[in-house]
Task: inverse folding
């Protein structure tokens, strides 16, 4: 943007006034803000909210990008390319900036992010690391939902905002997991379905054994008691334990 401070200081041109050319430059800057938000310019002098609308759109959409790269080489450009809100010309103004995107490929190891307005104007690849700065592991970035990375100038790398929760996590599947310790009478600790089923079987085992002893004492007058497989459906509450598939 043109430095209009000289006009305020009355050191150039008519004292305290903008020339037509200078005012046109200022108007063009404002129009570009509205146009890059995808809004048609209004022809009404009473429409005085378009700049506010453009700023709101910029705040919501300027951080959303498209991944047009390859495996382990993420290349991010805005949805509208060079016609949208411009990025800083280098990494000087990017510290703390976040980018959100849907990965085109799953990473197989170390990966980089290259950012720019267009594929021909990328700022240069920078390593992508885990939130704690440790090396990226295979599958940390995968197609599907959006992920977010934040540029950290102190290490000149992009940090994942958070790691995706894998469906292979023991919270959802795999070996039975003990729930967290109860905090109160209405606590609902988290355990997977397999753990809940194992807990049911363990609770029923002594009951079945006791009934068997009673049956023996009665001369086997009761019907034969056998252990039947026990299971629960997913997403149910059982004795304060919440099961997730």
Result:
């Amino acid at each position: 943007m043109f430095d209009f401070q000289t006009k305020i200081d009355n050191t150039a041109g008519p004292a305290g006034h903008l020339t037509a050319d200078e005012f046109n430059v200022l108007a063009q800057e404002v129009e570009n803000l509205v146009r890059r938000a995808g809004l048609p310019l209004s022809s009404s002098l009473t429409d005085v909210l378009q700049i506010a609308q453009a700023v709101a759109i910029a705040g919501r959409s300027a951080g959303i990008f498209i991944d047009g790269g390859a495996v382990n080489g993420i290349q991010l450009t805005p949805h509208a390319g060079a016609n949208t809100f411009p990025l800083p010309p280098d990494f000087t103004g990017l510290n703390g900036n976040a980018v959100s995107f849907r990965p085109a490929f799953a990473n197989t190891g170390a990966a980089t992010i290259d950012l720019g307005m267009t594929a021909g104007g990328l700022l240069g690849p920078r390593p992508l690391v885990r939130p704690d700065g440790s090396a990226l592991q295979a599958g940390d970035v995968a197609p599907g939902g959006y992920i977010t990375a934040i540029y950290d100038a102190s290490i000149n790398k992009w940090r994942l905002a958070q790691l995706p929760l894998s469906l292979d996590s023991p919270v959802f599947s795999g070996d039975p997991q003990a729930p967290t310790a109860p905090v109160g009478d209405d606590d609902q600790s988290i355990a997977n379905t397999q753990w809940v089923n194992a807990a049911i079987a363990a609770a029923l085992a002594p009951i079945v054994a006791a009934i068997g002893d009673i049956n023996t004492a009665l001369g086997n007058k009761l019907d034969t008691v056998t252990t039947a497989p026990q299971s629960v459906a997913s997403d149910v509450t059982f004795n304060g334990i919440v099961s997730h598939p």
